[in-house]
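Worked example 4.2. Below are the chains of a multi-component assembly; read each line carefully before continuing.
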Amino acid sequence: MTDAATPTSPGTSPGATPGALTVGEPSVLRVTWVIALRGLRRMRRRPSLFIPTVIMPTFFVITFTGSFSGITDVPGYGTDNAFNWMTAYAILQGASFAGVGAAGMTAEDIENGFFDRMLLAPGPRWILLLGPIVYSIVRSAIPSTIVLLVAFVVGGADMPGGALGILMVYLAAAGTSVVFGLLAINVVYIGRSQRSLLAVQVPVFGLLFLSTGQVPLSFQTGWLHAVASVNPVTKILETARQGFLGEVTWSATWPGLTAIAVLASVLSVLAVRRLRSFAP
Amino acid sequence: MTAAARAGRRGVGSRQAAAQAAELSRRSIRASIRNPFSWLPGLVFPLLLAAVYSAQFQRALELPGFPEVDSFLDFVLPASILQAIVFGATQAGGDLALDMENGFFDRLVASPVWRASILVGRLAGSAFEAFGKSVLLMGIFLVFGARVDSGVPGVIVIVLTSVLLALAVGGIGLVLALRTRSQEAVNATFPLVFVLIFVSSAFFPTDLMEGWYGAVARNNPITWIIDPVRRLVIEGWSWTDAGQALGLTGGLAVVTIGAAVVALEREMARR
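Applying the procedure described above to all two chains together yields the following structure tokens:
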């Protein structure tokens, strides 16, 4: 970078020696936000990204509730409106797409060389991880809001949990986007291509599908029951769904939040380690 | 035979035309065998869906209005097979669009090849894949305890219906490819196919669906195909059901392939 450029650079704090770039606390936040914002702009400009973000989750909530509404008549389902059960599922699916989409941005940057340029930039490397993750959280709020609107307006869903119940939906969605985003970014750091993201679809789809997304655990038999009862997504779904079925309780909240915290911590440690292995 | 196809065959003997069609068919069949990523997801996804739905919707069989079945696996068998077929059959159009994108189509047209063999080759690939998939899936379902009550004749009808459906969907793909000349445009129709299958009797009886959704599902052609096939699986042999399944898919195939021939003629006239 030339001396002429540095004084106006956002990374330079006042009073710093010209040419020596220092990155202070505000810059870290700023850089993270700029990376996240770049992702949001990218999404807005490309219809191919907009479809999985908005159309797919909306389609899910409508088809799942439409096709399987009869299942609510089986004693023990827990609600007589399928929207009360399946909205949380569609929202978490939208959130998982948001997470994988954030990894897609990183993969594209790696492929076209922009990531190398960001690696050369001063400042801690973990910002390159944090930026896409913040983007995935913001992006997850879009399908969550749309699916909630569809559930209330079209499906007549209930929310006895009130504002706290809605908060739980957004919290669980944000957590899901972070967990699946980190998982996908780990894979991208290893495969270093957009193609490698195809491999992520399997665990993402599997974890969401083999859960209590469509029916309660008590309805599931055999291997599915065994898998769904240990699947962390089942816990996250419980956190997201509780407001639709009743009051928000701590006992339905902490297992989901713990699952998110543990998975996100492990996956970020792995990702940061991978990030260090990038040259230079 | 249409005018263009006849014109395309000028100077090509019928034996030669058959040999050309066979060679182009072999090409597309070989291409799909060599690229498992083109057919494997279409096989695994319906199986996974069937496995999960059987383990989670077993209690739905208690519902009044649910057809009499031994297991949810029997109920979902036709849907899984048709889903696998439809997923793969859109490939014919995508592959033709690829041929148009990379110039192979131009070379075919420039050579003294029977024009219709371009379509025949692609459709044969879809039909072959559908045949393989339906036999394989049926085998897997039977191993896991499903039962086809109509026996061997029923199994034959299901396989034939699968092949005809692949031709019908393949025909739509070819029309799209000839009109758009873009692989991406053909592949973009995939979500639509997914919606069409979901909003049908594929995974749940339409009698148990409410309101507008139930009305759409009951009037979806996929439902008209799945329902008779399902009755062959869960109720037993019936000429009416066999006729409905084969007649509908066969009729649809004639219409879409006819449209593909017209689209090919237009493409030729444009050149």
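Take a moment to check your reading of the output against the notes. Residues 1-8 of chain B have pLDDT under 50 and may be disordered. Residues 89 and 170 of chain B are 5 Å apart (CA to CA).
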